[in-house]
Amino acid sequence: MECQVNYITPEIKLSTYTGKLFKTEAAFDDHLLVWLISGETKIIQADKSFLFGPGSTFLIPRNQLATIINMSGEDLPHKAVAMHLTTKRLREFYGPENTKRKLTDPKIFSFHKHPLLESCLASLIPYFEIPENFPETIASLKINEAITILQTIDKDIDPVLTNFEDPFKIDLAAFMEKNFMFNMPLEKFGYLTGRSLTTFKRDFYRAFNNTPQRWLTKKRLELAHYQLAEKNKKPVEVYYETGFENLSHFSHAFKKQFGYSPTELTGQKNTL
């Protein structure tokens, strides 16, 4: 697999992935606006999933835990233009007076092949061929154009883009029970629950009487076992949806926990 990312500014990039798939765990610091040129993107959250194909445009709000899987097509790589909508840029766009209100469940927005967004992001492609530095004034115009289009086509977007608050302290146990399958650093789990790393570890032990690493591994393996045994999924489908970095690590941990490998479990089911 090869990954090539070409930035015209730190906020605007063109990414190309070749190979079968590229997986990452994400909770982005910025809102991410994406136009998918070719290939597919699957986004898996705790309670829902999305599959986007060529021509799709979508917005991933910041601080949203998700597993993101980019897959190439039969003859084409996975190729996408992405625009980071930073807090600094959004504050400048909206000004000191904004309509901020606290959101309890910001969602992933889909704008399937919307002509306004598609033309805006497609217009960036020639700029990636320019050898000299891309002018900041033009970059600002293009980002402001994209934000204006988002405002125009979705009335629910302003409260998302104008919420500049850091995550506040929430119920740690409920959050972890919902999001344990995401392979994020403990520092990120702490931030998303409104805690420092030290406070997160302390509160975690109080809630579960276990360390985060041991509890997370056990929960992920239990989920993987359920998906293999009850949902008839294949090991290669399961490991990246349950927080494991690769199939080898998953298989080793699974056998250590249950006494048999994932393939042995699925093989037994197939012979019944």
Essential attributes:
11 helices, alpha+beta, 6-stranded antiparallel β-sheet, 272 residues, 4-stranded antiparallel β-sheet
The ordered H/E elements are: EEEEEEEEEHEHHHHHHHHHH
CATH topology of the largest domain: Jelly Rolls
Average pLDDT value? 90
Please report the total strand number as a whole number: 10
Low-confidence stretches: none
State the strand order across the main sheet: 1-2-9-4-7-10
Largest beta-sheet characterization: 6 strands, antiparallel
Q: How would you portray this structure in words?
A:
The protein is α+β, with helices and mostly antiparallel strands and 272 residues long. A 6-stranded antiparallel sheet has the order 1-2-9-4-7-10. The model has no long low-confidence stretch (mean pLDDT 90). 40% of the residues lie in helices and 21% in strands. Helix 2 packs antiparallel against helix 3 (136-153), helix 6 (186-192) packs across helix 7 and helix 8 packs across helix 10. It is globular. It has 2 domains: 2-161, Sandwich (Jelly Rolls); 172-271, Arc Repressor Mutant, subunit A (Orthogonal Bundle). It starts with a strand and ends with a helix.
